[in-house]
Amino acid sequence: MLGEFEYLLLTAAARLGEGAYGAAMRQEIEEATGRDCSIGALYTTLDRLETKGFVKTWMGDPTPQRGGRPKRMVRVTAKGAQAASEFYAAVTRVSRGVSWEANRVAIRP
Amino acid sequence: MTRIYWWLVDAVSRTLEPGERDVVLGDFEESGESGGRALRGVLGLVVRRQAVLWQDWRPWLVLVGLIVPLGMMLSIVSSLTAGQSATYIWLYANNWDWALLRYAEFWYEAVDSLAFVFVRWLTLVCWSWTAGFVLGSMSRRIARSYGVVFCLMFFGGLLGAPLYLAYFLQYNIHRPISPDTHDPIFGLAFYRVMLPLIVQAVLVAVPSLLGIRQGRDAGRFTRLLRIVLWTAAIGTLILLLIQEPGFVFFLNAYWLRRTWQGWQILQYVVYWPVAYLVATAIWRRWHGRTAA
Predict the structure, then answer these.
(1) Closest to B26 (Cβ–Cβ): which among A27, A43, A66?
(2) Over the range A49-63, which residues count as b (16 or more CB within 10 Å of their CB) and which as e?
(3) What confidence category does residue B160 fall into, taking pLDDT thresholds of 50, 70 and 90?
(4) Which residue of chain A has the CA closest to B50?
(5) What is the ipTM score, two decimals?
(6) By the 8 A CB rule, do B53 and A49 touch?
């Protein structure tokens, strides 16, 4: 089972597709969650996901806007997509009948 | 302030692997990160990277088997060295009289004292450098963590060792009750507090960290050279053990010290870092010249 942050990373990488790399994923997560995403958490979690075989990373080409430094490109593997899908399905199942709107919890009888 | 932050970011990021450092600094540049946030980010990454390495059992073995004993021994030996040096420094610095320069006896005594202090300091530097070298050559990736823990160990070494506490109690009991002949020296805060700290910082911390740095590169050497260096390093550390009064006191190993003292020539193995550093400097110079 994935962790919450692992799921966020996989989702951000999947959304960005070919353009998924560290800085872009970080921005994507910060915009979506409204929370700070530390570079330490990002890269150590990426390493963990890569060890599990959920993503593949490689060094991209250096670009001028990065001061001639390379990007760490990310691609979600089939195994990663499967894990993210299972996590999403589990969250959806467990959330069924629960409404968090307006700070009100309505539990189905 | 921003410049200082970025200088720190650059310095801290050097502890990352070169590839990762480039990626992280590129990310900061692209996202227009502020200096403070970048510093927090890179510090967090470095701490996490080092923490991951400590999940293995080997660093813990090195901690228990090398860092703790070596840190404690260097801590105590540096305190003893500081105490011995304090007497000579006090003798000349606090009782200086220009008229002394006229006497040949003064020069004879001064050279003798200076040689004694110099040899004690050089020995401590060589022990510290060797300890660092051994730690650095254990693992290139975790060497920085070892450096931090090692420094913490010998700066706080006297506090956390129950066996050594017993030794110090014994040591203190045997010390003459006040008035001690050394009271005029150790009554001064500089000789009692500051000098031991200066000795630990300059003669132990700095050489150990330099030794760790040089030890990290030892993996590139040939097998034969590594065996030679390790033999010299182990010999030096054994000598540190034998010379260290606590070890001899606790293990009742005075015979070991007597045996070792019989082999006068081998005692010079302690100074192998001097030979090593001179040899590497010559080699670098020669290599640089031939490459150019």
Answers:
(1) A66
(2) beeeebbebeebeee
(3) very low
(4) A44
(5) 0.84
(6) no
